Amino acid sequence: MVSSGTRTESSADRGGGKGFAAAEEGRSGGTERSRSRSSGGCSSAASGGSAAEMAEMGWGRWYGRKELEAATEGFSRGNVIGEGGYGVVYRGVLGDNLVVAVKNLLNNRGQAEKEFKVEVEAIGKVRHKNLVGLVGYCAEGFQRMLVYEYIDNGNLHQWLHGEVGPVSPLTWEIRMKIAIGTAKGIAYLHEGLEPKVVHRDVKSSNILLDKQWNPKVSDFGLAKLLGPGSTFVTTRVMGTFGSFPDVPYNISCSYVAPEYASTGMLNERSDVYSFGVLMMELISGRTPVDYGRPNGEVNLVEWFKGMVANRRSEGVVDPLIETQPSIRSLKRLLVVCLRCTDLDSLNRPKMGQVVHMLEGDEFPYRSVSHYIFLEFN
């Protein structure tokens, strides 16, 4: 996949199948609770507030640099499990034998400060089984590090596009489990928190998986908060998108919602679009952009919609799935994909509605052809 966005490869994009962190339901007793606090609190903490102040706000434990240096064996290259333009992630073992992932943020023009603030504010007090959990942090001088719970089963991108043999271990049932769990995690960000959190970088490499294939949405370094009454924020376009060599800015061939790419206006429906692309990727096993494919198949969204419109829905299913899905189950997910990637953002469902569509016993349409008619006519 070609990335021509302003943000470089995220820390979860690399790592040789190890991933870097996960929130575990058991840690919080399955508690899923909202929070209510102003954005100013984190701002003061991230710019030099005391460890006591941050701990009091419920943002996890404060770790000293020496403690994390010892846990990672001096930030040894042998312990690197992910790296990108925003920092390096290390596997570490704390004094109480707790295995963690330590994200050491690079301070490029103050970027470490920004990423630290965003991630702490976005997930510092969040406890949800489908969201990565923050264990603690380090803020000494200009040093900014984030400590997460560790997971060693990689991310969705690695399982979809890595070398897995002739049969994918991701059965249709597992893929549905990943789809539902990811939708629940994003829905909680949008609808269970105040202010709501727009992730802004939903993609397969940011979906971590535990040994039971439970998904954990990770990497909140690009997230934005929307307070009460706010319908959108205007921001510089960031995320993961591709471009064709002869088209300098082809916004349709990526995870990035077209209205966000063209105007910079961001809200939760931008995440919904990205989730729709992710679901197409999950069904097909294809990346959002693949220049190695024939003309007409490079852009996943265009190819996928074309196949469905031409009544060739079964042809979009990953051939590495040994047992193909039932027509009913496939159509359910196809409708989710099409509705989430509707070019008119107002027609996209909310993530809570997406969860209902994925879990509901009653199929939302008698036939996918109803939505196809609306989509292509």
UniProtKB/TrEMBL annotation:
One of its GO terms (cellular component) is membrane. InterPro entries: Kinase-like_dom_sf, Prot_kinase_dom, Protein_kinase_ATP_BS, RLK_Ser/Thr-Kinase, Ser-Thr/Tyr_kinase_cat_dom, Ser/Thr_kinase_AS. GO terms for molecular function: ATP binding; protein serine/threonine kinase activity. Residues 75-373 form the Protein kinase domain. Signal peptide: none annotated. It is a single-pass membrane protein. It catalyses: L-seryl-[protein] + ATP = O-phospho-L-seryl-[protein] + ADP + H(+); L-threonyl-[protein] + ATP = O-phospho-L-threonyl-[protein] + ADP + H(+). Pfam families: PK_Tyr_Ser-Thr. Residues 1-49 are annotated as: Disordered. It is an enzyme of class 2 (transferase). Transmembrane segments: none annotated. It is found in: Membrane. This is non-specific serine/threonine protein kinase. It comes from Acorus gramineus.
